[in-house]
Design brief:
heterodimer, A: 354 residues, alpha+beta, 6-stranded antiparallel barrel, 20 strands, B: 122 residues, 6-stranded antiparallel beta sheet, 3-stranded antiparallel beta sheet, globular
Chain lengths: 354, 122
């Protein structure tokens, strides 16, 4: 049976269209994906992201340990800062992508994808070293994302402790008696924040944000718009652009792999497969979706990893992993969709930047 | 629901309004549009078709859905509105027709409103 998040009752009350996603009952939309998408681009939207996993890793050698299991380097990551990274397997394939929060000198929080929680946890446990402990705090934490140009205005009504810089956070902010970790992060390519706090206070904090956001046009947003927003911002999503057989170098994430740090899992196996991730703007009428084959002059050059209609850009777009030799911007390719070839142009990523 | 007087349905969620015995307009039911979510493209062409044929598809942000011919006949007109503004299907499913048929036959499988509502409960 699918799990409920701490906000399950709210989703029903707000007429969320519930689906099962990564083992959780979550709303795919409340009103319409397009309306929710545009609310985040223009005003502000509220997401339940409590399905995400949070692991706490602490101890004298926590830094050394995390640096060994992830591809990015957190040596110079300061307390109250966040860094994006990948968890690789021995073959250099991606087990998951995650955020590392440095919560204290010797304490970190990893935020991982819902669908990978258990897999990640046992992988990390298998590699654990002395003087480091890990525990899974996921079930005790409610995570809410408030995203959009007005998100700061909403937060300012309930606290004056606002993290100033992108990828920074403030811990233990008192909101109506609840201790909240507020980070300036998100997955929408818009300004925004994520709040982590005791799951027992989920409904209270959610309603507080919804109430205070009214004057700024806040609406509840579901998984549907979360996906269109991240695709418009051209951010990779695990299970689509990433899996255990795809290396970060295949999808243009080389920036998050630090070959010059001391050893890390997957390092030796990483090699250039002559692949890259490209953006496609569909020229013909229609939508190109995941798993569609991509051709250049009748030669198969790759496969679509995500694609749909993007509301703000008002057109059909897709991302694909293709052979580098054919990845030049401006190239016209054809995508096989239900036995029909649909033309698309390779365009620069990201599709949308605020 | 006055607007649904004289409207018939298919099990595959198309609605049908007859002008006369052999001429009709078809569209997508309210249930269909609600399941699909925001419709962003409809692909349909004028053609001769038989009952149950795939005559085109509707693309929403979430997924693509086939559109099936409710009967045998000839599609002679596509609604321009759905080309320019496919969202009209979400806003007003019974006021937004997709295409017009003539020379209709094989229409025995159509459902009444009550029968259709029963079928979507299952």
């Amino acid at each position: 049976m699918a799990k409920k998040t701490p906000l399950y009752d709210i989703h029903l009350k707000l007429n969320g269209k519930m689906v099962e996603y990564a083992g959780y009952n979550l709303p795919v939309q409340y009103s319409s994906i397009i309306e929710e998408h545009n609310a985040v681009r223009n005003n502000v939207g509220l997401f339940d992201v409590s399905h995400m996993g949070q692991f706490i890793i602490e101890g004298k050698d926590a830094l050394k340990f995390i640096n060994y299991i992830i591809s990015n380097d957190i040596t110079n990551l300061k307390v109250n800062k966040i860094r994006y990274s990948l968890l690789l397997n021995d073959n250099g394939g991606i087990i998951d992508d995650l955020l590392v929060y440095r919560t204290n000198e010797e304490e970190y929080m990893l935020v991982v994808n819902a669908a990978n929680k258990e897999k990640d946890y046992s992988w990390i446990l298998d590699h654990l070293i002395d003087n480091v402990i890990i525990y899974d705090a996921s079930d005790n934490i409610c995570q809410i994302a408030i995203q959009g140009p007005n998100s700061e205005n909403v937060l300012k009504k309930i606290t004056n402790q606002i993290p100033e810089k992108f990828y920074s956070f403030i811990d233990d902010v008192d909101i109506d008696g609840t201790k909240v970790l507020i980070s300036r992060t998100g997955y929408t390519a818009e300004d925004g924040f994520e709040l982590y706090f005791d799951s027992n206070d989920g409904i209270k904090i959610y309603n507080l944000l919804l109430e205070n956001g009214k004057e700024f046009g806040i609406i509840p947003c579901g998984l549907g718009s979360r996906d269109t927003l991240r695709l418009e911002g051209s951010m990779p999503l695990y299970g689509h652009e990433m899996n255990e057989n795809i290396s970060p170098l295949d999808i243009g994430l080389g920036n998050f792999v630090k070959f010059d740090k001391i050893d890390f899992i997957g390092k030796k196996a990483l090699k250039d497969n002559n692949k890259t991730r490209v953006g496609l703007k569909v020229i013909d009428r229609g939508i190109v979706r995941e798993e569609s084959e991509v051709y250049f002059k009748d030669k198969k050059i790759g496969i679509i990893t995500s694609g749909t209609f993007l509301p703000h850009l008002n057109g059909a777009y897709a991302m694909a992993i293709v052979d580098k030799d054919y990845s030049t911007i401006g190239n016209i390719v054809e995508c096989l969709v239900r036995n029909r070839k649909i033309k698309a142009e390779i365009v620069a990523l990201p599709f949308y930047k605020r | 629901m006055d607007e649904l007087k004289n409207v018939l349905f298919t099990k595959t969620h198309e609605w049908v309004k007859f002008e006369d015995e052999t001429t009709a307009y078809i569209g997508l039911s309210d249930y269909a549009q609600s399941e699909m979510g925001d419709v962003v493209f409809v692909n349909l062409e004028e053609q001769e078709c038989e009952v149950g044929d795939t005559i085109g598809d509707a693309e929403s942000v979430k997924a693509v859905s086939d559109i099936y011919s409710p009967f045998t006949g000839e599609i002679v007109e596509i609604n321009e509105v759905i080309v320019d503004d496919p969202g009209a299907i979400n806003r007003d499913p019974y006021g937004t027709w997709l295409c017009k048929y003539i020379n209709i036959s094989d229409k025995e499988e159509l459902l009444s409103l009550e029968e259709y509502e029963e079928s979507i409960k299952e």
